Model the fold of this input.
Amino acid sequence: MTGLSVRLFGAAVFAIAALYTLQAGTYQITFGDVLGPSVFPVIVGIPMMILSASLVVFPTGQVEWAGRDRMWRQAAALAVFVAYVLLMEQIGFPITTAALIALIGIIMGGAPWRAVALGAVFGPGLWALFDRVLGLPLDFLGKLFG
Done:
């Protein structure tokens, strides 16, 4: 069963890398870097596809599936990341990022008040870094707030 687990993992990672690389080709931008925004995802995606395909062809190692508690934590973290992507345009970068940091901190077993404090500092802080310092425009408040 261990070879099958490794192969399933390799196939899943290959599918994600292929979609990631395919999506990178759709990025269009009229200013900035001559190579465009699709270069970095392609540089990451192609080796990821090659390495994951090698897991499908040559499975090795022992695989121990995580316990039920860890699987629930991973599922919760995945749900938080999906919600982050879906809500960022509606709510804005600082609020969704603060919520992401706080919720992931709690899911990972951190103290709730520390996770919320960390999110409250880093959400607006990362917005200021990206928007003001690096000049990458991000909505402070999303469509929901006008």
Observations:
- Residues 24 and 38 are 5 Å apart (CA to CA).
- The chain has two domains: 1-65, 66-146.
- Residues 1-65 form one domain.
